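Deviation from plan, reported transparently: adenosine monophosphate complex.
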Amino acid sequence: MTRGNPCQLPGMLPNYDPNDNEAGMKILEDLTENVEQIQQRVLEEIITRNARTDYLKGFLDGQFDKQVFKKTVPVVNYEDIKPYIERIANGDSSNIISAEPIIELLTSSGTSGGQPKMMPSTAEDLHRKTFFYNLLVPVMNKYVDGLDEGKAMYLLFVKPETKTPSGLMARPVLTSYYKSNNFQNRPFNRFNVYTSPDETILCSDSKQSMYCQLLCGLVQRQEVLRVGAVFASAFLRAIKFLEDNWKELCSNIRTGHVSDWITDPGCRKVVSLVLNEPKPELADLIEHDCSSKSWEGIIKKLWPRTKYIEVIVTGSMAQYVSTLEYYSGGLPLVSTMYASSECYFGINFKPLSKPWDVSYTLIPNMAYFEFLPVKEKNEDGAQYVQCNGVCKESCMEKETEKEDVETVELVDVKLGQYYELVVTTFTGLYRYRVGDILMVTGFHNKAPQFRFVHRRNVVLSIDTDKTSEEDLLKAVTKAKVIVESLGILLIEYTSYADTSSIPGHYVLFWELTSKGNNHLPVLDPKIMEQCCSTVEESLDSVYRRCRRKDNSIGPLEIRVVQHGTFDALMDFCVSQGSSVNQYKTPRCIKSGEAINILDSRVVARFFSQKAPFWEPV
Ligand code: AMP
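Because the crystal trials were delayed, the predicted structure below was used instead.
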């Protein structure tokens, strides 16, 4: 790749040997130097390929012009393109949104009508992802030496998949990638050797998969140079699993035999090979560390050569930083990338920076990027602040008529400004609002770097679930009918994501009163538990999957508070600068002080007693 000719392969992907660090670095330099030129070529390429698709021809009328594209193709939400996606799912094979065949649909953690949004994917897109993953290697090598002298214990999982009426696969983006040829037949790269055999990653039984991956990681502990999972929540779940299962794991290591309940044939075979023979000394060492009263620094003890933990700790995952720090023994927490089902976006060029300082540089040949300036301010006039990736207090972002607002190109974003990301992808999304709010923090060469601020309209998140104020209202409305039929009124509510234990869970604070007499009613635990379950049943399919299938969210809790609690909350918010006139009860609380105000007035606590129904779409 040279400066005048930034990309060589179709789809704007430069061809290079991923084992060649210098070549990788050079590509990153070129990509970040030639941002404007590459972005223009990406848009040209996408329009040229797809101008005759059903979707674009309606707007472009056969023209291949970029200006016409920006003038006539609207900025859209998922609801706008849903009918086109549904046509694909139902087997219409014409060029609906993409000239390249759509080979599968990627189910996003963002939902529409309670079900995952489905994003198109093409064969070429898998190569784009591989190209992106390969670029992460030279960046890490720049900051950490000797990563080729050992292995990575990455705990990676596949999730359930289903087929659309036309037979297309519908599954999460990472499941799609791990099951692809690009992952399973990846060429050897000495910087990317994993302790988890592919069979353990691809095992659809998440418990067997977790057990086997941890077993392999423990057996190879002296070779492990880095540990991780995609998201912080998944890594913490693995630590919890280890806490619950270390005795059995050690027993397997001691005897050299994997437990009988590991029935997946692929897993049994590869794990037996890794276990190989009885290893009583190794089992003793691990038992010694795990039986310690405190698990502070356990990662460093169990995997003593580990240099860092690779997990995304930005956005909603920031809430796990302190817990991870407790277990990590001071190891750096590295968020390498920012990506989604729609498209892989950006790379963290300073992987060792602290979680709060992480920025991602958008890679200009991944998609054509545009930005909707976000100007809204908090009620008290404050700008957006780092808020664990979800909206602070009551959602401060007021939806504006974004259609009236002009988008800004990647090279034109301004330092310190907030934007919502809009993408035009190689897979058939055109000027699509991703829903993420980003802030420009600086530039790498000519490429802007962004801090992930939060996801639009999300108030609660524990794992990959994204619950909006509206979702919550709907669910609470269904549940409150149950108490209303008993003469009890729900007069106020709010919520927070309690991540003080693993897995975290949603907490609702409810202020209740008896109809007619303004007294706190006598509460039947069974009825209140039913309310908890009803809220859970009413939340979207990603919440229900996390709760039921992945066990990554614990039972929802309702904490009933004494009368006057929400007045105390209002007093607190007003003391913090909220205007009395405009005060509205925040539907989600993040501030520790506000949570303490509510918690100190709790009179009863109830938990959901059954996991909600869930099945793949
Ligand atoms: P999905 O479509 O389910 O793959 O989810 C993608 C979304 O996850 C993005 O649009 C972001 O909201 C969030 N996300 C992905 N990567 C990061 C990251 N590095 N930091 C913060 N949020 C992220």
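The chain has 20 helices and 20 strands. We consider this an acceptable substitute for the interim report.
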